[in-house]
Amino acid sequence: MQKRYMFTPGPTMVPAEVLLAEAAPMIHHRTPQFSRILREVTDGMKELFGTEQEVFIIAGSGTAAMEAAIANTCSPGEKAICVAGGKFGERWAEICDAYGCEVNVIEPEWGRSFSVEQAEAALSESPQARVLCITHSETSTGALTDVEGIATLTRETGTLLVVDSITGVGVHPVRMDQWGVDVLVSGSQKGCMIPPGLAFIAVSPRTWDVIEGCTSPRYYLDLRAMRKNLQGKTTTPFTASVSLVRALHKALEMMREEGHENVFARHARLAEATRAAMRALGLKLVPENPVNGVTAVWAPEGIDTGEMTKIMRDDYGVTIAGGQGHLKGKIFRIGHMGYVSEEDLLVAISAVERALRELGYEFEFGSGLAAAQRALFGEA
Amino acid sequence: MQKRYMFTPGPTMVPAEVLLAEAAPMIHHRTPQFSRILREVTDGMKELFGTEQEVFIIAGSGTAAMEAAIANTCSPGEKAICVAGGKFGERWAEICDAYGCEVNVIEPEWGRSFSVEQAEAALSESPQARVLCITHSETSTGALTDVEGIATLTRETGTLLVVDSITGVGVHPVRMDQWGVDVLVSGSQKGCMIPPGLAFIAVSPRTWDVIEGCTSPRYYLDLRAMRKNLQGKTTTPFTASVSLVRALHKALEMMREEGHENVFARHARLAEATRAAMRALGLKLVPENPVNGVTAVWAPEGIDTGEMTKIMRDDYGVTIAGGQGHLKGKIFRIGHMGYVSEEDLLVAISAVERALRELGYEFEFGSGLAAAQRALFGEA
């Protein structure tokens, strides 16, 4: 028997209760029954986004919501500031470029967080920028961005703050309205504990004026049509991904039962324990200011993380992620977001230890697990 | 007890086997395990499309694939001929318009099929058209288009034939390569028997030259990225909708077991029986040349189909569809595509009879069922 565990930074493990909700007999999407579910799910996402605005649910992956953010706000030739301190930050620049924006790409060293001071400099350098695109939780490096701090700057300007919180929502507290974020996007297969296939987006009141005037082509991702359909008839402009919406309905119910503050505290505890374990193994974290959904770690000298993750998956049934882009082979990433318990985490750390041992890295075997145990029990 | 039946032209009923495949524990999308599934599913869709080209699987609804068709082929200012003989044909015109095309909209009366002769006239009127967009099976009216015939014209010209076969694939035989279709799109919640949330698109070899030169912005729907990822690494550029792809894997297996020719023959039989039943009830069909996935019927004078479908759903647990656009209230549509047996069909016809009876329409009660019974038994 080889039981399988998934500690990837998305897709994440899905509770059996949610899988069974997804497997319920099909219903039609233009019915009072589905509209009721859609409204409850939308309201649940509003809580996680920290907004009174509508959260629109798109059938698509997180990138679809990122593209919706740009296609609805940036007209060709407009200026965009994109912070590319990782693979997902780079995606903002790629999308803005595809839409004909004049892109100012800021490239913090991967693992470094874009700071409020850097944001201030970027905004004064490009005061006409239509958008400043940042990544709340950069999944490729595990670096956290101070969205709240940066929003204090943008809300005083005409530049919209566009935030990818795909691995932030449901993991970290998000206060879109209170912070002053203009566009926030997220995805389903992360903190929300459901399979991939849904993307989420909400926009601030002032963003609607920009959307109305935006000349970029869009149809499937047109936020005006989404608003009209949701507010008018509690429906979606195009066929909703019915089974995934029902999975989300169940997942949000489970998160509400646990209590959102407890969900965030659990993620903080899992992250702290993972970091403690990695330090005990003599390893160094990639980010200076880490997120709580994934821990990115430098591999020991001479160890290829492609090989390491393959051993973990094939020999121990434990899937984690390697590095992306120029960090491929050099780092490994342990996802601990969504449906991950303290007990699960021990499985991940155990497998990391075993693979490192097999690959010849010298360390006190079991010391990572012991450190996690202490941290989780509050004795760190 | 009220058992529920769905005879809508999408979403359609999903076999329990498929629902359970969808509910399997999550796996990561960048693994050999998922790549194997993706390859098998892609190959299965190629059979249904009748093409040797790749069929790209998009996380999104069918409209996403329609937009992909236009965003990748039409540059702003180029000419597009769009046949809008129903709600979904109109969608082609809306998308082409959103992308800045100069759109020549041809509007056959709803229910009439766009003919080869009309196509010939349209192509000679707009010889520079980049695309001719048609609807294989127009779900809003139940009208079938002679795609094969029209393709004999376009393949001799520089105009690409772009076909929405969202309710055609898996219902009617489709021979994309043999006919000479350039772009074919479909969706998951129709003949393919899975929930909504996947869209499909394939393009002919000559279309790639147009795609490379197309200047319209696209990122999530960029076919170049889809091809590169599928052919290079048997993967998708963005996170695949893992659970729906696995559902499709199971559904395609079931369709292969039944035999594709048998699947098409079953749809033809269901459609013929439904038409016979409606004629026996003294009702008139909307299309002159009907499709096999849905039967669109004019309501008797004085009967509102909104009221009729509500009675069917609430009192008898049977969901069918009313009319769309200017046919709202005037027609009803019985979907019989995907996971519909001969026995199921009797349930639909029974509920139509009951609702019409309640609404005061005079006819011989049971005559629709009897006609269907005869047609299904080959005694029509």
The largest chain-to-chain contact, stated as pair and per-chain residue counts, equals: A-B, 55 and 55 residues
CATH H-tier superfamily of the largest domain in chain A: Type I PLP-dependent aspartate aminotransferase-like (Major domain)
Name of the CATH architecture of the largest domain in chain A: 3-Layer(aba) Sandwich
Helix/strand/pairing category of chain A: alpha/beta
Tell me the series of helices and strands of chain A, N- to C-terminal: EHHEHEHEHEEEHEHEEHHHHEHEEHH
The helix content of chain A is 40-55%
- Note the beta-strand portion of chain A: 5-15%
Could you characterize the architecture of this molecule?
- The structure is a homodimer of 380-residue chains.
- In chain A, β3, α4 and β4 form a beta-alpha-beta unit.
- By secondary structure, the first copy, chain A, is α/β, with parallel strands linked by helices.
- Chain A is built from 14 helices and 13 strands.
- The model of chain A has no long low-confidence stretch (mean pLDDT 97).
- The first copy, chain A, is globular, with a radius of gyration of 21 Å.
- The two termini of chain A are 34 Å apart.
- Chain A has two domains: 241 residues, Type I PLP-dependent aspartate aminotransferase-like (Major domain) (Aspartate Aminotransferase, domain 2); 118 residues, Alpha-Beta Complex (Aspartate Aminotransferase, domain 1), CATH 3.90.1150.10.
